[in-house]
Amino acid sequence: MVFELVVVDVLNRFLGYYVVNLDTSQLSLGIWKGDVALKNLEVKENALSQLDVPFKVKVGHIGNLKLRIPWKNLYTQPFEAVLEDIYLLIVPSSRIKYDPLKEEKQLLEAKQQELKRIEETKQKVVDQEQQREEKQDTFTEKLVTQIIKNLQVKISNIHIRYEDDITNREKPLSFGISLQNLSMQTTDQYWVPYLQDETEKLVRKLIRLDNLFAYWNVQSQMFYLNDYDKSLDNLKNGVVNEYIVPKGYDFVFRPISAKAKLQMNRRSDFDFSDPKINLEVELHSIAIEFNKPQYFSVMELLESVDMMTQNLPYRKFKPDVPLHFHAKE
To answer: 40: Cβ–Cβ under 8 A, 6 or more apart, which residues?
Structure first.
């Protein structure tokens, strides 16, 4: 089926670029069988290269990725996607020991990715020109619509953290976001989980967000100085667990939880009885805090990032020793 090929291609390209030593043949086989389960994936050090920032991933971990694709029963069973235990520890590039072979390989990968992106953009333009005339829903389009209608997503335990002891050595900083749970389910008109068939005009999604918070620490502990496993454990401890809020974080906003009811009218082009998108959000409270030391730390970091970007091409000339007692080097 065309859709199976699309799923295989998207996952191979996305995961292949960000994940270390991904076995794409096994991934493709799992997708064709309708059941993909990948555990303990390591994120590449240069995963942020497309953002053009002077940062690298010191610790990158994806605990569990599951996809359940009922190819034989797409109209009667849900398409399920589960993503669990995503932990990223990001540091300035200069905090990663320079390795000329690794740097050359990463640079080549980045160039190949950019060329691929340019080719895909050109192809999209060509395809759009060839399909100027609007067509009725094809079988593939109806199939994709049905899958989106019954798509169920669950994302849990995410902690992304940046650490920096270069910007201000006397006041090392860290900031990040943490999320306990995010889920999305298809429901009926009473917002009870339900499988929709192709005759349904309205698509309803119940979205739940649990314990999302952001923080900015000044004079922070540096996780990256520990080994990989210890750093990973510290990241795991930064997620709300059974409503126990982790300590040692200067919150920008405290843990928030919310529920949202999303209703989409897929026939809105000619059926005006319901709005195209109707979103109702239930959010109890948000506590936002930002003190003077945090503000000064943000300003220092913005200035420092410019300097890091300028210094990045010259990393290879800097000896891997401190200046004190190593003047000759």
So the answer is: 61, 62, 63
DSSP 246: P
Backbone angles phi and psi of 213, in degrees to 5: -145, 160
152/202 Cα distance (integer angstroms): 16
Whole-model pTM over 0.85: no
At residue 139, the 3 state secondary structure works out as helix
pLDDT digits (tens, 9 = 90+) for 66-116: 888 887 777 778 888 999 999 999 999 888 887 778 778 878 877 887 788
Nearest 5°: phi and psi at 14? -70, -55
Task: List, in sequence order, every beta strand (DSSP E) within the chain.
Answer: 35-42, 55-68, 79-92, 151-164, 173-186, 202-218, 251-265, 277-283
How many CB atoms within 10 Å of residue 2? 10
Q: 201 with 267: CB under 8 angstroms?
A: yes
Q: Judge whether 213 and 240 are in contact, CB under 8 Å.
A: yes
Q: What's the rounded Cα separation, in Å, for the pair 79 and 71?
A: 9
127 or 245: which leads in pLDDT:
245
pLDDT tens column, 147-165: 777 889 999 999 999 999 9
